[in-house]
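Sorry to interrupt, but I need a hand with the structure work. Leave the record below and I will have a look:
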Amino acid sequence: MDTAKLNLLRNAMTAYAKRRRALSRNLANIDTPGYDRTAVTFEQELHEARTSTGLGRRPSAVTARVEVQDEAPVLENELMALSDTQMRTQLASRALSEHFDLMRTGITGQSR
């Protein structure tokens, strides 16, 4: 059963997985001359979809965008972004768990 909430959470988890890979690449290449930082955007586009009026994109249709930035990675910034991504992943994972718990309760009439 696909719902808007489930689609949004799936897209968020995909975005965070892409971001972790990009951050890992950035950290692995931190001392590589000429390496340009890779970034993954998701939250800004989600915010724009949620606050736009009219026939804009639905929040559940927002997907991650990978972009190469014209700057070298900075160790402290990459580690902070990795920590932030870990917290966001945990939050999305908890929301998915609660979503499926509610579905289970609705189907069986019993909570865990």
Strands lie at 38-41, 65-68.
